[in-house]
Give the backbone structure.
Amino acid sequence: MKNIYDVICCPVCGARLSLVGKSLVCEGAEKRHVYDVASSGYVNLLPPGRKKNAVTGDSRELVRSRTAFLSTGHYDAVSDAAAHLAAKLVRPSDGPFAFADFGCGEGYHTCRIAGALADTGVPVVGVGFDASKYAAEAGAKRAARSGFSTLALNDSPRGAALCFFAGNFFRPPVFPSSLSCVISMFAPVAYGAADRVLREGGGIVVLIPGPDHLIEMRDLIYPNVRKREEPTPPPAPFKTVERTETRYTVRLTARETVDLFSMTPFSRRVPEEAQRRVTEAGEMTVTVDVSADLIVRG
Ligand SMILES: C[S@@+](CC[C@H](N)C(=O)[O-])C[C@H]1O[C@@H](n2cnc3c(N)ncnc32)[C@H](O)[C@@H]1O
């Protein structure tokens, strides 16, 4: 494994892709499939022609709220926990550490994880997939701003390549056995896909909300806050080998309260009255409670 083109493949025929001008072109034997690189640097690798069951992911507004909230740094300890567990999967004999972030959102955590590993001298090749093209676009812009190498394989001041794609993590356009690590943060875990793309010795880093995550905000929304259930164990052949709990409180400004609420799943589920209680709450203190698991094949 040397670079990004040893990881991503054509979502239609699975052939190798290469950059030709401003497009990724596949080297398929029968037909060449072409994917344009957007000016921001992201590429849409969602399988074409499946409108009926198409995944679309987060909206532009939601991506904006998440960008604004994450930029405050309030969740940095969360990506630190993910990077800490991902580092346990580094095997220098495998060459560059290849990882994919499944449901990467706008790439804030992806960039921090890639950066944390690269800063310890590990050569990194990372890909972020999100069903939302707005998220993938924001990720590509962030990666370029943060000094990562892009699809053009230019020299990177960070010693890491990081590219973002619109893609479905249940059918990721990634070569089998090409990755050391799959990251899944606050998203459904695509165990079947991970099993296919992980090499021997690879693993999944899964981050999910703990029982008290944003409890103060949930208290405002729901009359009787339901306790979150224990995380379900991963399906065979996977098993959890390490769990870290990250827990702290943060004081939010009124603006941050709204941005945080807007990026949570409950912002789209609850009645208007409950939405108003949060958006008019102003400053508040919230608990961040996140569980990070390192999951490997048993
Ligand atoms: C709650 S957000 C988490 C984003 C990011 N991991 C973070 O923690 O900031 C979940 C993300 O998964 C994406 N998503 C949902 N279903 C998907 C799928 N089938 N394939 C790829 N991305 C998906 C959504 O668009 C969204 O950006």
Observations:
- The domain at 41-59+68-206 is CATH 3.40.50.150 (Rossmann fold).
